[in-house]
Design goal:
about 110 residues; mainly alpha; two-stranded antiparallel ribbon; Bifunctional inhibitor/plant lipid transfer protein/seed storage helical domain-containing protein
């Protein structure tokens, strides 16, 4: 009986932990939303376009710093990481100077 109650408690704790993690968001989800809504602003090749209202809303709700950890070579072929960092800083996100964002070193 004690083992049954303990297992139920552990399952409940695991469920709460998973829901908390989902509520905070995943870097991959943030990346998909930012790429979808801000591509005109962060694309690698000119012309640069200022962020749209939808892009701004996405950036303010996303953790752009966490996106840095999931950027791969194919992403860096499409976007300018420098523009991504600049966009984040423009809307209050803090990027540590000297840290890496993909292969880009943040100034």
């Amino acid at each position: 009986m004690f083992a049954n109650a303990f297992i139920r408690l552990m399952v409940f704790a695991l469920a709460i932990t998973m829901l908390t993690m989902l509520a905070q968001g995943s870097p991959l989800v943030f990346k998909a939303h930012v790429f979808q809504n801000c591509m005109d602003t962060i694309k690698k090749h000119p012309p640069y376009k200022p962020p749209s209202r939808k892009c701004i809303n996405t950036v303010t709700k996303s953790n752009l710093v966490s996106i840095c950890s999931v950027l791969d070579a194919s992403d860096e072929e499409k976007i300018s990481v420098e523009r991504l960092v600049s966009l984040g800083r423009q809307f209050g996100q803090h990027f540590t100077p000297g840290a890496k964002c993909g292969t880009y070193t943040i100034p």
